[in-house]
Amino acid sequence: MPGGALAMLELRGVSKVYGAARLIHALRGVDLKVQSGDYVAVMGPSGSGKSTLMNIVGCLDRPTRGVYLLEGQEVSRMNDDKLAGIRNRQVGFIFQTFNLLPRQTALRNVELPLIYRGVPGGERRRLAAGVLERVGLAEWASHKPNELSGGQQQRVAIARALVGRPRFLLADEPTGNLDSRSGQEIMVIIEELNRDGMTVIMVTHDPRIAAHARRVIQLYDGRIVADSPNSEPLDALEELRRIAAPEPPVEDGATGGGER
Amino acid sequence: MSLLEAVRVASAAVLSNRLRTFLTTLGVIIGVAAVIALVSVGEGASAMITGQIQSLGTNLILVRPASNRVVLTLEDAAGLARRVPSLSHVAPSVSASGTVKWGLNSYVSTVEGVTPAHLAVRNYEVAAGRFISESDVALNRRVAVVGQTVVGELFKGRHPLGQELVVLGQRFSVVGVLAEKGSSLGMDADDVVFIPVTTAQRLAGTNRLAVIYARLQGAALAPTTVAQVERIFEQHFGRPDQVLVQSQDELLDAVNTATRTLSLMLGAIAGISLLVGGIGIMNIMLVSVTERTREIGVRKAVGARSRDILTQFLVEALFISLAGGLIGILLGSLLASLIALFGGWDTAVSANSVAISFGFAAAVGVGFGLFPAMKAARLDPINSLRYE
User: Fold this and answer.
1) Do A55 and B5 touch (CB under 8 A)?
2) ipTM for this prediction
3) What is the pTM (predicted TM-score) of this model?
4) What is the domain count for chain B?
């Protein structure tokens, strides 16, 4: 249960204030601990501070007040270059809009974090090809994003997030731009990754997506108003089977049988 | 990110929009080509004038009046020959452009009044007959020695020896024909009619000389001899600077200074177009940064530091400007050789102008690429990721 001393990431009294003339309090004293291997959904209406929280947890932004410890390291006071290093090694981002580089192949897109880590080309391609295979896109490696379906693009993005072996995945509405079946396929991959030990923090406003997580946090007006374990998380694979199942046999027979 | 990786990323970006890249590069191409072509024209002019001066002969010094009020005479020339032992020949001369007629043919050539020493001083040779002699000069004879161009133009191939010529309204008999000296860099040394200097002065109704050519015993004697000649004329006229005494080297220096100024001016004009090309690069790079805001956000999110983004865009600008520089050098060289071919004007593409314009193109790339690259590097990843 959350509360142990060995939290993988911990926010203590984190606040974020924007603006100069009119101050906007995006976060107001958030305390949060996430253990290694956790599967957390962050929910809340728009304007509740979800995005700000995600930016801070993802080391894209620094809190105005409070402390953010990642693996016991205080990242809230690091400079931009250090934060870039943390993002590169510890965080795997998955975005709603995939955010792939349009002119680069799937493989090159997956290689991207390794480029900034200085991994030599050969090894980079080998690692990238490995994770592409893991998300089931081995034969699509040389295709550009516009040649892939939305679901495939998101899987490339997941491969990109995984290739650097991050400490946690940070997913921002990962299924928001996908049809229900492709979205469910993505949820299956995320769930598998979590089962293999990957910590997942997912921001969503969709309760059916949040229902896959084992812990659900509700944000409202920059504060955590609820933080509850989900004792019966949805099984993504089962959901997928249900969606992907053929139409009821009766209907199937009616259209496909007889006359021909 | 390694530099090699930056080059790969930049070249991929630059090649993904070929037409735009080409149009951007065009500014630099035109600028560099203009620098190369115009400077080569300047250098060609310099080489031409240098060649003309050298074609006068070797180890020459020239004595000319500094103004119209100063009169140099044959006596002054004779005095020089007597008093300056380091001069092997002294050749006083007057010259004018004049109409030369033979029968019904007429031709405008350079008519030059000379003494026998002229042959040696100016490195002419006689092909047939004889040159102007001492007695021609002493007796003001109306005799002429003609160059090969005049032979061709006026006598149309007829043998000119013994023919009667009308020069400046007076009859002359042709006593000699010069061997062909050839035209050197645009100046035809064979387009000349030599007559005795005294005859020329009488025709012009003056005792002035235009110039005294003098040949040195050796090139090393030039500075001391020039000083000595200047001293002689300072005594003669009672004050300095009445005549210009110049060795060939000094003349070359003066001309080189003038042509260098010309080259510099042409180069500067061309440089301005290179600058305009640079502004074009900056413009497109700024557009590119805006267009690729999201890409920059993604790169930063997965761990690119500001300096990685800076390098990427700087390399891109450099890529465009250096490609433009290379193409511009080729185009400029081509242009220079076309000018030489069709303009009849010798051009010389120097390694210097190639190196300078290439370096300038690189500087333009870095200089004008820096601002857009810094703009890209400073983009905030959060807003960039949301940029539509």
Assistant:
1) no
2) 0.89
3) 0.73
4) 2
